[in-house]
Design a protein that fits this description.
The structure is a single chain. With 179 residues, the chain is mainly alpha-helical. The chain is 72% helix and 0% strand. The N terminus is likely disordered.
Length: 179
C-alpha cells in the first residue's frame, strides 16, 4: 500500500518539492532506512528512557510510511510511548504531529504541533510544521497569521518571511483560480 502525500518524517516536511533520486540513490536510501529501522528498537531496549531513541525511531517510521502507510500507526504508538517518558519533548510531539497529520487526523495533528510549538520558543521547527499543516489544509489566512506572530517574536527571521510570502503568493493564486 502506498503512503499518501503529506508531511515528511524528518526535516523533509520543510521541503517544497519532492527530492528526486536516481535509482541507485533510492536503493541507498532504502538500505539506510532498513538499517535505521533495525538499529533503533535495539537502542530503545538498551536505553528505554532516552528520548532521542524514540524521536529517531518515529522519524524512521514516518519515512517508511511515505511508502507504506501502515507505518503511521507504529510512528504514533512509538511517539506516545516516548511521550510517557518525556512529555515535554517538542521534537517528539512534532514527530507525533507528522504521523497524525499524514494518517488523516489533522485535528489531533494540529493540537500536537501547537503544543510542541509552545514548549520552547527558540525551537521553531514545530511552528514551521504547523504552518505547513495549515497550508496543506488550504487555510492560508491562519498560516499567514502564524508567520506574522512568529515575526513579532523573532523579528527578521528569514525563513518566516520567506514562508509568509510564499503563502501570500499561493493565496493570491488560489483566489485568481476561483474568479
Amino acid at each position: 500500500e502506498r503512503g499518501r502525500p503529506g508531511l515528511g518524517g524528518g526535516t523533509a516536511w520543510r521541503r517544497r518539492e519532492p527530492v528526486r533520486r536516481s535509482p541507485s540513490g533510492a536503493v541507498r536510501a532504502k538500505v539506510s532506512v532498513d538499517q535505521a529501522e533495525a538499529h533503533w528498537p535495539n537502542a530503545l531496549d538498551f536505553s528505554p528512557r532516552e528520548q532521542d531513541n524514540y524521536i529517531n525511531l518515529v522519524m524512521v517510521y514516518n519515512a517508511r510510511a511515505q511508502v507504506d502507510s501502515r507505518y503511521y500507526s507504529e510512528a504514533i504508538a512509538t511517539a506516545r510511548q516516548g511521550l510517557q517518558i518525556n512529555p515535554t519533548s517538542p521534537a517528539l510531539k512534532a514527530q507525533l504531529a507528522v504521523a497524525l497529520f499524514n494518517s488523516g487526523d489533522a485535528q489531533a495533528a494540529v493540537a500536537e504541533a501547537k503544543a510542541a510549538a509552545g514548549m520552547d520558543p527558540a525551537y521553531l521547527d514545530p511552528v514551521y510544521l504547523l504552518g505547513d499543516m495549515y497550508i496543506q489544509m488550504r487555510d492560508y489566512a491562519t498560516a499567514i497569521a502564524l508567520y506574522e506572530d512568529l515575526l513579532r517574536t523573532h523579528p527578521g527571521e528569514p525563513e518566516a518571511q520567506r514562508r509568509r510570502q510564499n503563502v501570500r503568493t499561493r493565496q493570491t493564486g488560489t483566489r485568481q483560480e476561483h474568479d
